[in-house]
Write a structure and sequence with these properties.
- The chain is an alpha/beta fold.
- It is 43% helix and 18% strand.
- β6 and β7 form a beta hairpin.
- α4 runs parallel beside α6, α9 packs across α16 and α13 packs across α14.
Length: 469
């Protein structure tokens, strides 16, 4: 490996296991755009890649095949005069190339990036690839075929859950998630940028853990100057990113942007499926279900359980920091600067919700700090007409943690009024749910809490520090 791969420990374990296995491997890797899929494979397998090519966005079949052959001719001096007319012929030429490489214990990696882009309508690509894997690759023990794509729906339906020639053929699958806070910190330190944890949290609230976005943070930046330059200044790097993401991942005429827009303007706790449909005047059918599924699988929307009193309902909410930030601040404030916007009252409301989102994504870190990470639990939100609880950790050891999540630029003061609100939340939760478990209030804040009224009421006070563990 020529360059450092930050984090990705579980993914690297899977890739390493494939190198050491006794058989040829077919690995499917997917995740949202710019998350670092290509970088991970190219860097981890830098000494093993025998051949690789990437699909052309909106490329017709013959252009895709020609691109394939250009890369193959880069790898070998053979096949200079070959002009395959279809994918069966193209993969047959690749097979001839591999046959010329002696079978050894060292694995040879074939990397096909942006796999969904190659499989254009009536291209014949997927059946030809299925045949290449089944008829040839499985006869050898020294090949690793990696197929990669940002279109999560395609990768799941056409590759991982394929009902044809690739049915049950995927040997390993990797869904690459955004960096967690700890990985962001490690990534920035690798770039020589040592930021305080609170500044990393503020950057994460706007950009999330997307590696490509974080690449543009510079030495000497604060969260304000970094976000301003990357998102708001003239010709900012992410000025058109939202539109590019949706154009590259999803089909025209689908409901993805309408769903995202409905969720951005709806209650921060989320909306039901019927509420989204009603808000946008859409009909419930296959197209809507497909769009919602793709948004969830791509990491832009989260589906989760919420309890209103004892009634469970499924809610959907935006779960991608940059999408929410774009719709909340970038799109409506063209020509403005973050150096002014972050002082407005809208920032306070947004930052509270964005910090909650971070806590949801780092709930395992919260559980480790509560020393209950080895105990099975169910996580959900809860509300009734008199109280709302941001995060409930309902544990199998007869304890329920009611997590109150607050983003402040200083310590959170627990005065008598706030203490009364926290007691009311406990009372309402116990009464409505009828739980017999022990109920504890946990504060999760940026800088901790202060005030004598929290003594004996707040069982545990956690700060942003625990989210980096």
């Amino acid at each position: 490996m020529s360059r450092k791969i930050v984090g990705r420990n579980l993914e690297k374990e899977k890739l390493e296991e494939a190198l050491n296995s006794h058989r040829s491997e077919l690995i499917a890797i997917y995740g949202r755009r710019r998350i670092g899929k290509t970088y991970l494979i190219r860097e981890f397998y830098s000494k093993n890649i025998t051949f690789g090519f990437s699909g052309l966005r909106n490329g017709i079949r013959q252009d895709q095949i020609e691109n394939f052959m250009i890369e193959l001719r880069e790898a070998t001096n053979k096949f200079q005069g070959e002009r395959p007319q279809n994918w069966l012929q193209a993969f047959n030429i690749l097979k001839q190339y591999l046959k010329g490489i002696r079978e050894t214990r060292k694995k040879k990696v074939i990397f096909i990036d942006e796999f969904p882009w190659v499989d254009t309508m009536r291209s014949g690509f997927l059946p030809a690839f299925e045949n290449f894997w089944n008829a040839y690759c499985t006869t050898r023990s020294d090949l690793i075929i990696v197929v990669c794509g940002s279109a999560a729906s395609y990768m799941i339906k056409k590759v991982i859950r394929n009902r044809g020639g690739l049915h049950n053929r995927i040997t390993r699958k990797i869904k690459l998630e955004p960096f967690k806070l700890e990985e962001v910190q490690e990534f920035l330190l690798y770039k020589g940028i040592d930021l305080p944890e609170i500044e990393i949290v503020k950057i994460y609230m706007a950009l999330g853990g997307v590696a490509e976005y974080l690449e543009h943070i510079q030495t000497g930046d604060s969260s304000v100057t970094a976000i301003d330059r990357i998102c708001f200044q003239k010709r900012a790097h992410l000025e058109h990113e939202f539109d590019e993401v949706f154009k590259s991942l999803f089909e025209e005429g689908s409901y993805h942007e309408q769903i995202i827009n409905a969720l951005s303007k709806g209650p921060k706790k989320g909306m039901t499926r019927d509420e989204i449909l009603e808000d946008k005047g859409l009909s419930s059918g296959g197209q809507f279900s497909k769009s919602l599924f793709e948004l969830i699988e791509s990491g832009f929307v989260e589906q989760y359980q919420s309890f209103r009193s004892n009634r469970k309902k499924t809610l959907f909410r935006i779960f991608d920091e940059f999408c929410l930030f774009h719709l909340q601040f970038i799109a409506p404030n063209k020509g403005n600067r973050w150096t002014q916007l972050y002082t407005k009252k809208e920032y306070v409301s947004w930052s509270g919700y964005a910090f909650e989102m971070i806590c949801y994504k780092h709930v395992e870190s919260i559980k480790r700090e509560l020393k209950c990470d080895q105990i099975d639990s169910t996580n959900y939100s809860w509300s009734n007409n008199k109280a709302q609880i941001d995060l409930v950790i309902d544990r199998n050891d007869n304890i329920v943690n009611l997590c109150e999540i607050k983003f402040y630029n200083d310590k959170c003061i627990i005065d008598s009024d706030y203490a009364d609100k926290l007691r009311n939340k406990e009372t309402q939760f116990k009464t409505d749910t009828g739980t017999r478990k022990g109920v504890n209030t946990v504060m999760v804040t940026t800088w901790g809490i202060t005030g004598t009224h929290g003594v004996g009421l707040v069982t545990k006070s956690l700060t942003k520090d625990c989210l980096f563990n």
